[in-house]
Design goal:
- The structure holds two protein chains of two kinds.
- By secondary structure, chain A is of the alpha+beta class.
- Chain A has a single domain, classed as Porin (Beta Barrel), CATH 2.40.160.170.
- Chain A is 19% helix and 53% strand.
- About 13% of the residues of chain A have low confidence.
- Among the domains of chain B are: 186 residues, Chondroitinase Ac, Chain A, domain 3; 95 residues, Sandwich (Immunoglobulin-like); 95 residues, Immunoglobulins (Immunoglobulin-like, Sandwich).
- In chain B, the strands form nine sheets. In chain B, strands 1, 34, 35, 38 and 41 form a five-stranded mixed beta sheet that branches. Chain B has a five-stranded mixed β-barrel with strand order 16-17-25-22-23. Chain B has a four-stranded mixed beta sheet with strand order 4-6-2-9, with no helix packed on it.
- The longest helix of chain B has 24 residues.
- The chains are: A alpha+beta, B mainly beta.
- At the A-B interface, helix 1, strand 7, strand 8, strand 13 and helix 5 of A face helix 1, strand 1, strand 41 and helix 3 of B.
Amino acid sequence: MKTTIFFIIGVLLLLTSQVFSQGETSSAKGDELSKGISKEETSAKNNPGWGVAIKASTFGPGIEIVKAFKIPVNIRFGGTWLNYSMDISQYASGSEDVKTINNLHLGTVSLMADWQFIDFMHLTGGVLYNFTEEIIDVYSNDVVYVGEVEVTPETMGYTSAKIYTSKINPYLGIGFGRSISKQKLVGFGVDFGVAYIGSPKVDLMANGMLEPTADAITTSGGTVYNKEIIENNIENYKFYPVISVQLSFRLAGNK
Amino acid sequence: MKTIIKIPLLITIVLLGILTLMSSCNKVTNPLDGTKLVVNYDLINTKLNFKFYDAATGLLIGSGTELKVKAHIEGEDKDAVIDITGAALDDYGAESNNGFITLALNPNGNYKPSKENPVTFTLVATLNGYLTTSKIVSVTDEGNYEYRIDMVNLSNPPQGVSVKFQNNATTVNSGVVGQTVTVTTDDGNASVTLKEGTVLKDKDGNPLSGNVNVMITFFDNHTDESLQAFPGGLTPMVNQNGNTERGVFYSAGFVALEITDNSGKKAAIVEQNTIPLNMNVSDNTYNPETQMNAAAGDEVPVYSYDPETGEWNYEQSATIGAGSRGLSVSTELTHLSFWNFDWFTPFTCDEGVTLHVNLNDNVCNCMFVQGIMRKAVDNTFLRWVGFFACDGDDVTFTYLPGGMPVYIDWVNPSCQSFFPEVFPPELDIPDLCEPVTYNINVSGHDNLSTVIVDFSAYCASSPDVIIKPSFGAWYRPVNSWCWQYAVMINGHSEICGVEVGQEYVVAVYFNGEWYQETVLVDQSQYIYLDIQIPADICDEVFGL
């Protein structure tokens, strides 16, 4: 997993360095021209205007509205959304007799501020309204026999775990490229950051024969709740890595 | 250029390093570590409790001893019968423990009992030294049921039953009886004659040989203990005239005959001759055809009973005549089994009278009531009546003979201090088939309380799976043999009718085994957690 991340980052680094180094590459037309372009490109001053961006991130695909100011700060407002269901039975139980369906609902509404401290890099801070949740349903896929008694999946019941985080997540990251191109119509950027999501929470539901799995469980060691056990096991996963790539289009402002 | 690229690259590496460090600082924990899967095991909707009593002593057979009654299930719905754990019966058989067998009906759709589609089977009970008997069971609704089966100890028969063993009564050579012999019960009420030249063979056609032993058992038709222990009961299913019918016997008397050789072969087939059977008939025998006491000249049907299948078959009619002690009847036996001289009245209604239960008790919502149904015409025992009476319940009798006046005697003196009181103590019912509702008032005893029991179990092979079982349990005061039944649903039970400060024996039966413990009831709640289930049950029933 980490190798994959590093590979993707490496490719993106190369890609974005090509984008912003275009302004710096010497052209055959002469040093003056390249110097002129280079000067403007490497200037920390911003080119105010409006733009829209489409993006793909670890919170799913989305769009943003970008406002660039004279000062080297851009404000971005946008959202992401992705619904995805996957049958992970083979990985979860190792058997098709027990179905495990992972329903992932990614979604955010974000307000970000980019400080373009260098022409081709920015620091980003912001806040996300995060309505991401993951619902994992587990149920019997076929009739089960308890002795001679046939137990249908309906009778056996199913368990469902909903995992969600706190709604307001602060964000900090670093980006390459610009939220909106300074001189061109189209811009490209890649961002790396983390969102603080807090300790994930779990809602557990069960029905049929499995109903007491979601309730208080009294054992010789005391009363426990499966919900609390799972929350304790995942409480350290408080940070969510955000990697996004965006393609922006300048709508208005100086070009 | 190089510097410009180097700075962001450096920042990126640092940032990624921080991210990596954060994730690697957290030990990757399986989110499900420490969680438990908890399962309500409440699949069995119909529980059938059988209690086997010694007809003479009134005690449960095997109570405190190793005696085990063997039960075998017969009939077209025998596949519906399973062990209380859900496991299949071994070759449709089960063994009692401490006089108890608890069975169940498979809750699968095709076995679900209803009035339109009852589940009917016969339980045949055998035990060495006891007369084989059977009981026909017909279930029309899901629930908990209790059945009593009285068995005759041949060495200690109950009142009204006479047994005669004659060992080496005669000899047979290749199945042929060498010398005529007559064997008579000690009370002189029944006799059989093996005539010289009669051929005796077992059911497989193998001839008996050597010395033969004759056992003849006579059941009178008036004594409660005798009628309660009638093999097959008095509400059987009979095969006659090409039909199978369910009904009631008005009995004139019953004879069980068994002939064996010393190798253990039991005679079933009779050839060359018939075997004359003679039986005295009580003067008080009621003839439903004449609606008067039986008299000489009355015809009485003769039925044979196959103890191995619990089936009754019409054989012939016999004529009541004058005997040495009043009336008697004779017939010629063409094969060997048990023989009943009866007038058979078929059931004429599927549903009849209803009992509406008013339970006046501060402690219990339901109580088990028990009584004896007697024929009003001669006050003789007809059948046991027993059911769990819950306040407001309507209990409807099914499969009944019409026009038969009966009454229910609710008195149970041996367990009166523990069983509830029922009013009226004697309930008259003029016609069992009339759609009439009778109110009965049931009340418990003031000194009794409710005890709550919570229970959970697990299998050693899967300690993370907790099972909350549903089953029935029996309990009795240590100084009494009056067992009462309590039900646990999903690991929770509220046992009412218990006296705090009293010691009780609590027991469960499953998979042929009996588990018993003595408990001093000194609190209102008991919690039994993490009880380990036997490995064979885990494997066979739960697949764990």
